[in-house]
Amino acid sequence: MNVGTMGADHSAQPQGIRRLPITIALIIGAFVSILNETLLNVAYTDLMGELHVSPSTIQWLSTVYMLVIGILVPITALLIQWFTTRQMFLSAMILFLVGTIVCGIAPSFGVLLTGRIIQAIGTGLLLPVMMNTILTIYPPEKRGAAMGTIGLVIMFGPAIGPTLSGLILDSLNWRWLFFIVIPLAVFSILFAAVYLRNVSELSRPKVDLISILLSTVGFGGIVYGFSHAGEGEGWSDPVVYTCLIAGFVALALFVWRQLSVKEPTLDVRVFKYPMFALAAALLMVMMMTLFSTLILLPMYLQGALLLTPFVAGLVLLPGGVINGLMSPVAGRLFDKFGPRALIVPGLIIVIGTLWFMKDLTTTTPVGIVITLHITLLIGISLVMMPGQTTGLNQLPPRMYPHGTAIMNTLQQVSGAIGTALFISIYSSGRSRYLQALANPEDPAEKPNALVAGLHDAFTISMFVGLIALLLGLFLRRTQAPIEYHPTEPQPKPQPQQ
């Protein structure tokens, strides 16, 4: 099947497809898998005590999740062209369910880590399938609302995760964090088995094992290197710079190979579309800012304001819920007004909020923290989904699997970079504060040292937000180019709206 034929096959939206049941099936699966990511964060103290492991070891439960997704997502561009929508989605959810069961009954840390890897494989398969299916079944003029609905669930899961986790751990042990997910995963599988339909065309391209190997080493090395930089010796650790060098070299070879072979595993030519390239860069910068907030604010609430994990979760709940509710609103506004009318004001809100957040102290009222968190996430909700939809809308339909895989991969990589960067900035500012004291071991100064590190991290985050604003000024409404059979005359290029 050649490129022209592929374009023709995909040029029209699928006929006779009931979009609502398919969207609901995708939403349930996304909610279950994403909720699980944040459920575990506040249980690390309990896990360290019961499994007898150190903080650096327990962090692998998060690092390996991000690592596996970062490795797997690029390969999904190939898998989506080999397997049907139902096969991909149901396989992803069954793997996730198996991983959840393994985690729930794990007798040791090694078994728990294995369960997390299986969960991550399921999630890594699920996210690109969800995005690709939405792009396939909805026309461009309705994608904003559809993506906004997906965004509601994606943001609502992490929002209630810490609060729900704190509530469970108050009365039950950590295993129930997995047991409560099992019935949700089973329901998702059964619902999808009944209502999910195949909507993608299969081209079954050649499997390039060299590309898969380079992709694994490249993305895996980069994600692991940046993740490991936030621990131990930091950037001077030989493991960190060895992984980063190997990762970037393998990634460069991977890109070169994708441009050389006839049927690329991940078609990097999507970056020839300017709005896709610009949106991808914008979302990477925003993910760095978002991850810095997700990591630093809980540390501030518990370490400086001395709140319990459950109360800290309650403090973060309103912002997460409002952010989720804003996603469909932003989607509908995007369909009506285009990206720039939302993204530029959203970025201004983000930058202004970070300006105030860099001045948080050990005596800041909790109400102000809640207000700042809500405002920040409203700004982010005006940027993330409109930016992603804008970039993907410019791609021809045959490139949807590649575009969604690249978007998801870059967000995972930028999340790892943001985590390492801002943890390093925070740790450096905290250390400088303590070194300037006559008695660095004074326990009373620990909250003040935390706040000092927080100031530095949020200040840099604010400047990162300014870079995002500069990128956002150039975004505009996009539409996919019309593709024709090779035998048809080519029309003159149509200007973008």
Write a concise keyword list for the protein shown above.
Growth Hormone, Chain: A, DHA2 family lincomycin resistance protein-like MFS transporter, cell membrane, disordered N terminus, 3 domains, 497 residues, transmembrane transporter activity, membrane, mainly alpha, transport, disordered C terminus, single chain
Give a quick precis of the structure.
Helix content is 75%, strand content 0%. It is an all-alpha fold and 497 residues long.
Detailed description of the structure:
It holds the Pfam family MFS_1. The chain has 497 residues and is an all-alpha fold. It contains 19 helices and no strands. α6 (85-104) packs antiparallel against α10, α8 (140-171) runs antiparallel to α17 and α15 (340-357) packs antiparallel against α19. Residues 1-12 and 484-497 have low confidence and may be disordered.
CATH superfamily of the largest domain: MFS general substrate transporter like domains
Fold-level CATH name of the largest domain:
Growth Hormone, Chain: A
Low-confidence spans:
1-12, 484-497
Overall radius of gyration:
22 Å
Q: Please tell me the overall pLDDT.
A: 78
Give the count of helical stretches: 19
Level-2 CATH architecture of the largest domain: Up-down Bundle
Secondary-structure element series:
HHHHHHHHHHHHHHHHHHH
Membrane topology: Multi-pass membrane protein
Transmembrane segments: 20-44, 64-83, 90-111, 117-138, 145-168, 174-195, 207-227, 239-256, 276-297, 303-325, 337-357, 363-384, 405-429, 449-475
Pfam families: MFS_1
Main location: membrane
